[in-house]
Amino acid sequence: MTEGEPLIAVQSVRVAVSESANTTVRVDGVSKQYDLGGTVTALDDVSLDLSAGSYTAVMGPSGSGKSTLLNLIGGLDTPSSGQVVVNGQDVSAASEAERADIRGTEVGFVFQTFNLMPRLSAVENVALPLVFDGWDRNRRRERAVSLLSEVGLGDRTDHVPSELSGGQRQRVAIARALSTDPALILADEPTGNVDTDTGAQILDLFDDLHAAGNTFLLVTHERHVAERAERIVHVEDGHIQSIEDVSGGEH
Amino acid sequence: MDTGESVRITLRSIRAHKLRSALTVVGVVIGIASVITFATFGASVEAEIVGDIETSNAGNIYVFGTPSGDDDFDRTLQPVFTEHDIQQLEGIAGVEAVLPRGIVQTQSVRHGNQTLARQQVTATRPASFTPGVLVEGRSFETDEEAVVVNERMAGSFSENLTAGERLTMTMPDGSERNVTVVGVVNGTRGEVPVSEFARQPRVYVPIDPFYESVVESPSAGVRQRAYPQVTLVVDPREIPETQSAIQTYLSGESDARSLSADDTELIARSGNDFVEEISDVIERITRFVTGIAVIALVVGAIGIANVMLVSVTERTREIGIMKAVGARNRDVMQVFLVEAALLGTIGSLLGVPLGLLVGYGATRYAEVTFSLAPLWMALAVGVGVLVGVVAGLYPAWRAARVDPIDALRHE
Fold first, then answer.
1. Enclosing H/E stretch for B201
2. Which pLDDT belongs to residue A13?
C-alpha cells in the first residue's frame, strides 16, 4: 500500500458534498493503490456522501473497486490519499486501534459468507462486538437475545452456526451488525450465498431496518438487489460512473 | 476485552482440538514432572543425610590436618595427638569429652570356628559408647580384656555375635588374645558423620591394654601414647567459642602442631560445618540434574509454540471476523496468549502431582524419607504458566498482525 498521489490522473466525479449535520459518511477525493508487483489503482479520486438514514447500493463488475470502497468506509483499510469520515470520525487519519473501535461501534458488517465464529452460539456471535466494546456479560446477552428475536431467531439463540440454515446465519450476522447500534451498516453481497426466496427475505429485513432509521450501504452486482435501495452508485475501473436515483422516480 | 470471555473462547478452541491440545499438555506435564521429581528427590536425600548428621553430631568437633593453602579436600594428612594434647584439650572450657582413636593391627578375628581376616580394630575410650548407641550389652571399661562390636561386625559371622560371646584376635606377631564381646552398638559417639549404608564392620577395644603406639611428646619430654584421630564432644550451646579455642590450641602450642610438617594445617571442624558442606554438594548436584530436566520443559514449550502457530493459521478467518467487529490487536493477542497460558497451566497442574508421585517412588526406592520442596513446586507451576505465555508470544503477535481483509478472504 503505497502512499502518495494517484499515478493516473483522471477526471473526478464529485457528488454533491453537503456539509450538513446529517451526513453519516463523507468520502472525499479518495484513491487507493495496491502494490502487487506493479502499482494497481483500485479507487481513483472518489468522492461520495451518505446521509443519515439513507439506503445506497454500489454496483459494478468484479474488480471495479466497489469492495475496496466498502473496506475503506468500514475502516478495514486506509486510503492512499483522500479522506473518509464516518459519523464525524476521520477513519483515514485514525490509528489502528482507533479504526478497530470505529469498526466495532460505528459500523456493522454483513458479509456474503456470513463470517460467524464457528464455535460460538448465535447469541455469543451477536454479542461479540459488545465484548470488544466492554459490555458486561449479562447486558451483552440481554441485548443479543433481543436482537435475535428482532430478526426472527428468538428460538435459535443457543445454536452454533453449523446448526443454522444459510438464511438464519445471515440473520445472525445482521443482528450482530446491529448490536452496537452503529451509524452505518455495510453489506457486501448479503444475498450472494442464499437462494432467491431467502435473499428476498433478507432484503425485506433490510427494508424494515432502513424504515426504522438505519443507514445502509450495500454492495452488489445484481440489479434487482440494488433496486431495493434509494439510489445506485455505479462504479467501474475505480471511478464512480454515475449515480442513479431509484427511490420512486423522484430526483 | 475481559479475561472471562477470552478464556471461554479458548476453552471452545481447546475442546475442538482435544487430541492436539492433550498431546501438547503432555509435553509440558513431562517437563514439569521431571523438574519436580529431581528437585523432590534431591531435597529428600539432603534432608535425610543432613538430618542424620544434625541429630547426632551437632556438638562434635573433628580435627584434621590438611596441606596449608590447599583447598583440596581429599588430601588429608594424618596428624598425631599425644596424651598431653588430649589432657590440654580436655581442659578447654565447653569441651565435654575428648575421644581419641587409634588403629590396632590384627591379622584376623575368630569367632567359634569362623575366621575373618584383616579386621579393623579401633582403640578408643569407654566414653565413646553412650546408652544411645548401645543396641545390647554395655560399654567396655578401661583395662578390660573386652570388645564392643558394631552391628555390621556382629552380622559378619554366620551366627550373629551377641553380648557375652568370645572372640579371638590374632595379633601381627602371631600371638592370640581372647576377649569377651560386652556390647553391640549402632554407631559411636563422636564418629565422623556417615550414613548408615557407609558404615564398615568394626571392633572396638579399650586403649588400655590394647593400644601401644607411642611418640615422644615435645612438651612433656616423655614418650606417650599418640593417636591419629581425635573427636571432641562440646556443649552444643557454645560450639563457635569452643571450636575457636580448640583451633587456637591446635595451631599454637600443641604437640600435634610440633609433630606435623610446617605446611600442614590443623583444622577443627564442627558437625555443622560438615552439614553445610554436604548440603552444598547435594544442592549443587540437585541443581545440575534439575537443570537437565528443564530441557524437557523447553521441549514442552516448543510444543506449545508449534501448536499455537498451527492454531493461528487455522483460525485466520476467525481473527478477521474478530477484527471486523471491533477487536483491537491486543484483544486478538490476548485470545491466543490465554490459550497458550492455559495449556501451560493445565500442564503444570497435572505435572506437579505426577512429579511428586514419581519423586515419592524414587525416595522409596532409595530408602530415604520423602521431603517436599515447596519452593520448587511453586516455581514449577510459575514456570509452566510462563512457558505457555512465552511460547505463545510469537504466535499471538503473528495473529494480532493479521490483515483483516486478507483474513476474511482466507478459506
1. none
2. 40
Specify the number of domains making up chain B: 2
Considering the domain architecture, whether residues B368 and B237 belong to the same structural domain is answered as: no
**Residue A191 phi, psi dihedral angles, 5° rounding:** -105, 10
Domain-embedded: residue B267: no
My answer on whether B246 and B152 are in the same domain is yes
**CB–CB of A131 and B5 under 8 A?**
yes
- The verdict on B107 and B162 lying in the same domain is yes
Separation CA A187–CA A165 (nearest Å): 19
| Ranges of H-type helices in chain A | 66-73, 96-105, 122-132, 137-150, 166-178, 196-211, 223-226
Q: Are residues B286 and B249 in the same domain?
A: no
Considering only the beta carbons, identify the residue of A115, A129, A136 that sits closest to B326. Answer: A129
Nearest to A100 among B4, B323, B405 (CB): B323
Specify the pairing of strand B121-124 against strand B203-206.
parallel
Same domain, B47 and B82: no
**Least Cα separation, residue B391 to chain A (angstroms):** 24
CA B271 to chain centre: 14
B123, B234: one domain: yes
Q: What contacts B173, CB < 8 A, 6 or more positions away?
A: none
> Contact, B254 vs B227, CB < 8 A?
no
- pLDDT band, residue A19 (cuts 50/70/90): very low
CATH architecture of A52-62+96-245: 3-Layer(aba) Sandwich (3.40)
B72: in domain: no
Least confident stretch, A91-105, B181-195, B222-236, B279-293: B181-195
Q: Is residue B64 part of a domain?
A: no
Extract the C-alpha cell encoding B234. Answer: 562440646
- Asked if B326's CB is within 8 angstroms of A100's CB, the reply is yes
Domain range summary for chain A, segments of one domain joined by +? 52-62+96-245
- Interface contact A77, partner B, CB < 8 A: yes
Q: List, for residues B178-232, the tens digit of each pLDDT value.
A: 899 999 888 887 776 655 555 678 889 998 888 888 888 888 888 888 888 888 8
